[in-house]
Please model this.
Amino acid sequence: MDSIYELARRAGVAPSTVSKALRDDPRISVATRARVQALASEAGFTVNAAAQSLTTRRTLTIGVIVSDYADPYNGLLMRGIEAAAMAAGYQLLVSSAHETGVREVDIARTFRQRRVDGIIIVASHVSESHEHLDPRIPVVLVAEKPALVPDRPLVSCLIVEDEAGARTMTQHLLTLGHRQIGYVAIGRASLASDARRAGYEDALRQAGIEPDPRLVVVPNRRDMAGVGAEGVQLLLPQRPTAIFFYNDLAAIGGLRAVIDRGLRVPEQISIAGFDDLEISQLVTPPLTTMAQPRLDMGRMAAERLLAMIGGDDDRTPMTAVCTLMVRRSTAPPPD
Amino acid sequence: MDSIYELARRAGVAPSTVSKALRDDPRISVATRARVQALASEAGFTVNAAAQSLTTRRTLTIGVIVSDYADPYNGLLMRGIEAAAMAAGYQLLVSSAHETGVREVDIARTFRQRRVDGIIIVASHVSESHEHLDPRIPVVLVAEKPALVPDRPLVSCLIVEDEAGARTMTQHLLTLGHRQIGYVAIGRASLASDARRAGYEDALRQAGIEPDPRLVVVPNRRDMAGVGAEGVQLLLPQRPTAIFFYNDLAAIGGLRAVIDRGLRVPEQISIAGFDDLEISQLVTPPLTTMAQPRLDMGRMAAERLLAMIGGDDDRTPMTAVCTLMVRRSTAPPPD
DNA sequence: GTGAAAGCGCTAACAT
DNA sequence: ATGTTAGCGCTTTCAC
Model:
């Protein structure tokens, strides 16, 4: 029993009738629909999706490229994407672009081969991957810079307000009285890191402070916690009273390093991050950070993609608004 | 250009020749193989996976059921699974069983419908899900109790040494001199939590201490950090000098709660977890915990599944050995 | 070394 | 309300 023909035989109807009945097509009488469905579930029969999509030309599959499964930033995003996708009857084919640059091309190729109905690229330093993608299928880029998003049909993006968020955070630190504020960027080319730095410098200038380039460091370490630790090491000689890190993971690594040097947070030095990971409110002291509505972002991305799959081509970038979460890692500077 | 027929026409050969050429079948001359492949990549052509799997009866797809994308426990596991799967040319169709119990049936159904070649169920309190699965396709259960794993063909499992790990951890605390050791379990039925409790009690008995039921608490909160916090609240009146938590997330929540009550860790109270999440070495103080080789576990699970897909039916449970990571959250009790 | 033909399991027109 | 037929795009015998 693994085709509709067999079921049709058993039910004493035509295959096409079974096909329709199984999809609850109203052209089939309620009675036979029920009968066929009962027979199917009794026999544990499910239509073969491959055969189905061969005729319908839709796979009901969304390809998701995620930077790394182990990056806690992605979790809620995935949850949001899945929620919206599932609600619309779509499944997720997931691939991570973890490290390996080469692999992106492969991912793109597999997605093509599988004829996914659309693609979501999450939080990538993977920006180039969409260049390998089939231009006929819709793509949504999450947390990508508009500058990197080609303005072409079926390509949409969701922007995080990095610059504005960083400005807000820096203003928070300025308001507390800090004047020596460091920024820890990340090494590999990251427009998000650049944008956050721009917001940081902008806030300083608005406050009449000329940004001191020695207060901006770009660690070489590849892991985020390492970036934070190295950032602290590079920055401490400049005697900052507050350090703003590219993201929470770096901030938590930095926090660890600062504490290990015997400094007290926030009494002697303030620490701030960006992202608001679930863990950030649990570290000691709880981290002041900019929250990103990641669950909603995932949902928005998936919904936009579904709209594009449905034929809509609204490409206006979506925007995720960040919210300042003031916790205990920031306080006025020591006198 | 979206079928092999068109390509065949352009190449001036038969479709079946293209089919073979594209798969590098040695029966086709090197010359035509090269020509066809060149033509294909030039035209951006890829074979339709649906059509392909309709004939071959393989989808090269592994269905993965993961408890929750946002659970940091799963990240490395997924990474391991993907690494092994990709290496063998398989893709991952991922679904989370986040909360909603009902959904498992749906996931099972979609996996059936899509004819995935095998299924990996990760870290589930989702244990019943395999009951809905097609008995003809291989399944690997990760971090499941053998007791819950039906002994039937094509069902394999990877066991975490919960009891032994918990015993080791408790012995560590005993060795430090603790006598009043609390255990924070989790509310929802969890054999892992039960097993860890058993190991904990066993170690106590071995040390000549009769386990005190009042030192074991089962919080009601649903989120892990909340479980930890509530556990602390329930346990503190019993004046434990050390608390062993079901897992790291709970331990970190508990750590937060203990510190918020003005207690110093580890000077006044020791804290221990289980799992060794990436974050656990970054909290303050860094957490003493049992490490699970999660990356390898993922890899092992996938490799076993691939073996089963390949026809092997070795069902002997695989075992993940845990390692004690002594960090700064544990120390001798105060006098 | 290459080709012709049948069939994988389904859906979509088009009958009836 | 149901049945017939012709594909969807591929692989697989089996011929040549």
Notes: Residues 163-292 of chain B form a domain with the Rossmann fold fold (CATH 3.40.50.2300). Residues 2-5, 15-16, 19-20, 23, 47-56 of chain B lie near DNA strand D (CB under 10 Å from a C1'). Chain B touches chain A through 49 residues (CB under 8 Å).
